[in-house]
Design a protein that fits this description.
heterodimer, A: 335 residues, six-stranded mixed beta sheet, 28% helix, B: 539 residues, two-stranded parallel sheet, globular
Amino acid sequence: MAVLTLHGLSTAYPGWRLAPLHLELSHGATLAVLGPSGSGKSTLLRLIAGLERPTAGHIFLEGQDITSWPPHRRGLGLMFQDYALFPHLSVAANIAFGLEIRRLPRAAIQRRVSELLAMMGLQGMEERRVGRLSGGEQQRVALARALAPEPRALLLDEPLAALDQMLRQRLAEELAALLAQASVPTIVVTHDPAEACRLASHLALLHDGQLLRHGPLAEVLHNPGTVAAARLLGLKTIVEKGDLAQRLADHLGHAPAYLVLPDAALTGRGVTVTGHILGQRYDTLGTLVAIHGTTVELFLPPQPPGSTITLHLDPDRIRLLGEMPSVPQLAAHRI
Amino acid sequence: MRSFPWLHPLTWPTVAFLLLFLAYPLTAILTQGLAGGGWQKMGMVLGDPVLHRLLIWTTGQALVSSLLTLLLALPAAFFLGRVRFPGQDIGAMLILIPFVLPTVVVATAFGVLASPSTLIGRWTAPLLGSPELPGLPAILAAHVFYNLGLAARMMAGLWARIPHSTLEAAATLGACPWTVFWRIHLPLLAPAIRAAGIVVFALCLSSFGVVLLLGGERFATLEVAIYQATTQLLDLPRAGTLAILQLAISIALFGTLGRLGRSPALPGSAQRIPWGQLPRRLRVAGIVYGILLLVGILLPLVALTLESLRFHDTWTLEAYRLLTKDTRHSALGTAPIHALIQSLRYAALAVVLALPLGLTAALGAQRSRARASLETLCTLPMTISAATLGLGFLLALRTPWWDARTSAWAIPIAHALAALPLVLRVLLPALDALPPAQAEAAATLGASPRQRVQRVVLPLMARPLAVAATVSAAVSLGEFGASLFLVRPTAPTLPVAIYRCLSLPGSTNHGQAMALTTLLMLTCLGLGLLAQRLAHPKD
């Protein structure tokens, strides 16, 4: 059974709206909501946490309709993008906050706090003021604070965005391990496809208030379905309708609107096409190749511009993309 | 934060407080002022040539005071706003010292300076009191002393934000420094100059303590005339008519301030020139001006302190010893030290009233759609003159259940009313600056709205609350005008006791007044320093 079910959830601001959205989060799953800024992913988290009210739709937590519940009664853990630690409290008091609100016995609070301190590797920092902590330490305190009251689901808003690049990669692994250890169903919101892939078992792609696609990670990655979804995932080589698309389509037996050529498609067997080297991009170090009137960016050993190249593309590894869905998909997909 | 349509219930106690203790007394002045003698009496008062002279004198002294203040504050504003020099923070703090002092302290200190029989007055009295017009130069000097820091700070804020590039552009187009000052600096500064001018003019226009203590009956302003009509002539309809006039002038002035005092959009960062890069002439002028300013600020305070340490022309602590004695000739009928205790008690009550009212109003304002109207409503007590408020209390709050003349709460309530605008000015920006995320985080951790305020908002507001409490206490300790109307004869406040001691002859009364004033000055300076430390803690 799903822990969290969003049924036709939507909201609107002047000039922007979140289209009615259906999602489910099951036990043991970590769902990454991937989208650029302005896509509505943070709003989605705030709606689930109860910090904002939807204009339509329902939120079910373990079968119970919590749509109109105030945030403090929902029992969900939310970790804020800038952590929002309480500056007037120590590390231990921050973590204990949710437990004290629930009036747990002192001994139980102490046990749970030291358990979390150990889990996060924060022993010895109990009495420190949170303002004196490094970014990575703050992140772990925020996570411990959100986990302490044993929330029924955990919501993470860009958990790594406040950290610098070097720290991010290391902490992404660490966070994935901690989430696995905590075994709380989790929704994590991010704009970084690599981060989403590292943390999540399931993926939902959100663009401009529209849910483009969702499902198990591998399924979505292998078959993004639409151009917008493929772009969100960071797939760059997208071939639009044209001679090349037509040629490839002949081999595939039908004509899709768009194709994605991942590097994996350059296999040395399959369809043989001829391309002209146009030049190299210095930002991505990709080589721009014109194939049958379509410009494609490929990662090849450096070639002089103007030279001709023969490529073998494996049609089985080419991803087909449809148009953007104009009607929101109304059936709730299990993820 | 969700907006509550109109006003959030949290604001209701404050609104009720303002309606009962501000709006109701003011309407009482209006209705009784008209009903007591009717339009006829009002017309008689308004047509009286004595009143015309009173009005001309009142506005005249305010105009001269505010022009002098602006002129003398301009260099201070330049150095504080445009220049970076060592000791700048201390300078900015020193210049505001007069503003935290009660009017009674300022008036008494300038009285000492204007009296040739005192130690420092020997040299300063010829400057402050001419034989034909005793009091007038002292009144003007006290007004400048009082408001210079405020005016300088108001102008420095905007001056700091005039971009260097604008001035440099003018210079490259051929403007000499003098032309740059007249054509660029002054026009850009105009809104701040106008705003400072209006505020200082309004303060001098409703100046009560300084004029009453230094000018006496001869230099009565409208404000003093209200007091005289109430307590000496016992002519309440006349007092009411004068108060209506005062009220109309105040409202007109603050309305103008809202229209004219708006600042243009300039970049937020300060653009300051290092001291060393100033032209030599400007540096010399700055040093001379700085020394004169320092002397001007400190001299009255020093003169007062020295005077309190002298009795019968010898150095002694006798004046302080007299504070505990209820002498036969005492103006108070009780030992003066009781006035200090009484004032501290009133200050504590005023804080107890003003802080919760200000806090709930600020919390409610954040949640209300009519926030702007609420803020205006809460600044109203600032625009109402002390004598008007005191008279209003006397006229309105005389019921069988509660009488402002006999209740021990009348003065703390009036003081809380005066402190409320300042409390809100401290608390509301501090609340706005709190990131909402922390309260939201507490909500997701299970804290109810009440628990969020108790466990997150209030602890984070500890400092601003302490600042607000300190400011309220200082306002209450120094408040003179309204207290003079409401004071019970047996329980005078500190400023009222000082006034009574000063208005009677005899070295005992004089010594007691000096000692009490010095104590009041030190208390208010201490509170000012405390507020400053609390508001800007060193990291």
